[in-house]
Model the fold of this input.
Amino acid sequence: MDVVTVTADAESFTCNAYLALGERDVLVDAGAMPGVEDVVAEHTDSLDAVVLTHQHGDHVQELDAVLDAFGAELYAYADHPRRTHEIADGDEVAIGDESFDVVHTPGHADDHVSLLSESTIFSGDVVVHDDGAFDYGSFGRTDMAGQSREVLIESIERILERLPDSVSASEASAGSSDRRSDGVEHMYAGHGDEFHGDVEDVIRTALERAEKREPKYPDE
Done:
């Protein structure tokens, strides 16, 4: 599955919007970059769907422009005037060439979902590889109205519970053979860089930091 960050050249604040190309061309989040629909059109002329991780402005500002340009279906957890498919925890959604489980992951946003396949996670803002606070394992901010660090911690734990079995570095060195060696290796988060490697370790690092319950940013 080929994944393109269509907001990579944004000059103003936006989330990362990812175009997954394959059997089913799907955009994960629409972002807030004017003209994002034109970037999508450079890669496909038949966008099948947009799937939202959540509906914060930096993820949906250009949603109407994308839907108008392609007539794509809209998958979302929370109600939206243009939603064609309601998704809930435990549902499956076809993205690119893979089937993704929907994992409800509130804390940063009540309607937040993460999308998890055998090899890939679109984690939205609940957990990211790097941002302005931490590298190699960070988590969504929870200092604004309606957000909760405790709920976010539970959501990160839920992701870990739902990850396909994989062998950690320590288990591998100890000769463990009761878990598969092929785990989730591709992480596409709402902010920061994409990551390819031991995604489970990145998520566990983020969880450890979140569990300290310290302010993520000095001014929180």
